[in-house]
Structure formats: structure tokens, C-alpha cells
């Protein structure tokens, strides 16, 4: 009677059997093949394996016990290596066939003397990915068999032809059997980063900054306004790290359920009990993986903290408007890129609209808005349908009208201002009136005048509404980007001209905490 329920399938075949048969000739190959079959059947008999089908040099076998199937696979390889093989008189010495074995455990029910289930095809693909003398198994089989870390080696996730999702493969180890093999000749599933519709503009300075941040931290958060390029940056940097992460790079937008989103990203089934984060932690506990969490907010902080605590080998790159404010978090506010990068970005935005302006064509226009990405996006239409020269002339004549021709720039800034605290809004307006920026000491004086807190400045830096400049190594200047100043105060930087919709958000600051601020701001 065939087993049902949790069934373990085994496929075996001889590596290079066609080449071996043609090299030996019909009769010598028949001797080797029959000897190989006899040895395998003896091991299967001892471990209660049921032979479903034998065709040529291959076996299809089922077991009702996953551990027994693993023992049978090791037993087959051991028997084949230790058995005396005939010389056959061909001058090649004893001929031992090199057999490859694939194992997988899954739910299945017998039908018409066999099994009609994708799990059979999965097992066949696993066997096909093995090398001669090697036993490959799914991680699902290893778990069902109760195999420990000493008896297996995790090889990673792979895409098996014709089957949805991915399968994690492991190699079984045993004394006396070889353990070094080439990688499986199938496509590894190392990441799920979306394919770029076009190549992103390189931002080498930001890449280096992220490299430095991860040298000492397991959680790095890239923050900034919506539309400032956070998603493009984190995806591009993560793609450069794929080969450095043994267990892959997994990208997701957490949404309401960060655990379910991670499981989907890694090609794992949803948790039927609604415990997505627990299932994700179980899967990642011993993995060396990079998680890229896009569009996060502080509602995700607890789940991120649990992931870092329970999975000591993972690292997390998060992107959001504001940091998560977790212990050990490295914050990197996305500052406006240098002119060579911002001009390439503007040229790319124009190309999306059918205009083939070059980086050099856009350089002056990009420099005039200091590479402020929301402003670059706002200028794309007028630049694409006119010219960079015409757009620059219009920008100089009336910057606010030119930037806000469609209302999108004003709406983006208004949304950003609405997200920050009242003290931060007040400091933002004060700094907007100072075109040359302010040092930390000057901001302290500014806040005292308003009975405010320097924490407001920290908040503005976190969301990239204020940029940091370092004209000298011993000081830092904090300045509102020029396009944002134009919108807040007008080209003449007179605070009285603040648009009414933004003015509604401004409020008096609260008590200053200079000691805390000095520990969090570059000076």
C-alpha cells in the first residue's frame, strides 16, 4: 500500500549515462547498470522504500518516513562507493557509475498506482540539479527528517523549471562521502529586486555612505521627502550587494503586515494563522540576508526590532519619510545630489517625456535648483516640451510660478510640512529666511528667541527639508534648499510672503534641549 499524507519522494539516476553507455558498449554497460540496480534495491529494501517506477538508469521511490529516506539516500551512495566494480577488460579499470539523488517531502495522495502531484516534478528537478555522488534535498525534506546542521549544507534558494516560487536546496553530508561539489546547474534565487525599466543614475557618493553605515550597523534608514529618489537609491545599492549576501537580498513594501510581505518577497507561503512576522523570523533566524524595506513608517518599528533581535545575521536597509528611531539605527537623510548626478537625473526625466536633452544641456538648470529632486521633477515638463535654456530663463524670471506650474511641487511641499511638528515648522520658516544657512550656535539662538527646541532641527534634517553644508571641517551649516525657500518665502526670502496653505501649518516652537541636540547633529 502506497504511503499518503506527508510522503517523501526520491529520484536517482546515473550522471552522464548516455555518454557512459556509448563509451562502454551495450554489454559492458548492461553489466554496470544491473549491478547498480541490485545495490540500490538492497538499500531500499532495508529502509522500506517503495519502488514506483524504474526506467533505464533511473529510480522513482517513495517513503512514508522522511528520516528513513535520508538514510536510504546516504546508504545508496555509500554502497555504490564501497562495492567492488568489474574491470570489464576495457583497459579502463573498474567502472563505477556516479549516481545523483534528489529528495523532497510534501503532501501527496496515491492515485492509480502512482502520484499526480507537483511534488513529484519538484523531486525530479532536484535530482536533475545534483551532481554524481551527491544527495540534494529540499529544505522541507530536511526539516521533516529532523536533520541537524552537521548533516547538511544549505545551498540557497533556486528556481526549478516549470514550478512556481522557489525551492531551498540542501546537500546531505555523511562520513566517507564527498562533500565538495560545484554549484547546482540551475538558476539561484538570490533576490527579488524589481527589474529596472531603465538604468538608474549612479549616485556613488550615496553608495559609499551606505557602505560606511553598514560597516558598523545592522539597520540603516534612508529618509527624505516623497519623490526624492529613495526607492531608486536603495534598490540600486542593494543590487550591488546581491553577491555578498549568502542568503539573498529581499525587497518589499511592508504595508499593513510586514511579515506577510517578507514571506511573499522570499517566495514562501503565507502563514495561514496570520502570524506572518513569526513565520518570517523562523525562516530568517539563521540566514545571512539583506532586507530592503521600502516606504516604512514608525508603525513598523516594533516588527523591525523583533527581526533584528531574533535574526542576528540579517541586516536591514529601510527607506521612509522619517527614521524608525530604534536603538542602533544609522540614519541617512538623502541630501540633494551633486550637479553631475542631478543633471543626469533631469535629463532622464526629460527622456521619459520624449525629449533627448543631454546631461550637459541640463547642467545649468539642475545647478540652479541645487539638485533638489522634487524641483527637478517639477521642471521636467517645461524642460522637455521647451528647452533647458528656456526653462532656466523662466525660472530666473519667476521661480515659484515656473516650479509650480501644475501645482504638484507646492502640493508635495505642503504634504511634507504637514508631517513635521509645530516647532520644526517654525524653525523651517526661520531658516528659509536665511539664504546662507545657520550654524548650530545660530540655530540655538534662533530657538531661544522662540522658546523652542533644537530637536526641531534634527527633525528637519531627518526628513531632508534642511540640507547640511560643511564649508570648514570644524563647523556645519544648516540651510533650506533654495527651491523650497522660494516657495516658503518668495524669491526675496521675505517670510511675510509664505503661501496661506503653508502658513496654516506654522506654529511656535517649544522649549530647547541643547544638550540632546548637540549629540545628534554634526557640528
Describe this structure in words.
- The chain is an alpha/beta fold and 523 residues long.
- The protein folds into 4 domains: 5-172, 2-Layer Sandwich (Alpha-Beta Plaits); 204-333, Rossmann fold; 339-406, no CATH class; 411-520, no CATH class.
- It contains 22 helices and 17 strands.
- The chain has helices spanning 17-24, 26-46, 66-82, 118-129, 139-145, 204-216, 230-239, 258-265, 276-284, 301-310, 339-352, 359-368, 373-385, 388-397, 399-403, 408-419, 422-432, 440-449, 455-462, 482-489, 500-503, 514-520; strands at 5-14, 50-55, 58-63, 99-108, 110-111, 114-115, 135-138, 152-158, 167-172, 219-223, 249-252, 290-294, 315-320, 329-333, 438-439, 467-472, 475-479.
- The chain has a 7-stranded mixed sheet with strand order 2-3-1-4-7-9-8, sandwiched between helices.
- Mean pLDDT is 87; it is low at 493-523.
Summarize the structure.
This protein has 523 residues and is α/β, with parallel strands linked by helices. The protein has helices at residues 17-24, 26-46, 66-82, 118-129, 139-145, 204-216, 230-239, 258-265, 276-284, 301-310, 339-352, 359-368, 373-385, 388-397, 399-403, 408-419, 422-432, 440-449, 455-462, 482-489, 500-503, 514-520; strands at 5-14, 50-55, 58-63, 99-108, 110-111, 114-115, 135-138, 152-158, 167-172, 219-223, 249-252, 290-294, 315-320, 329-333, 438-439, 467-472, 475-479.
Class per helix and strand makeup: alpha/beta
User: How far apart are the termini?
Assistant: 77 Å
Sequence stretches where pLDDT stays below 50 over 5 or more residues: 493-523
CATH superfamily of the largest domain: Nucleotide cyclase, GGDEF domain
Strand order of the largest sheet: 2-3-1-4-7-9-8
**Strand residue content:** 15-25%
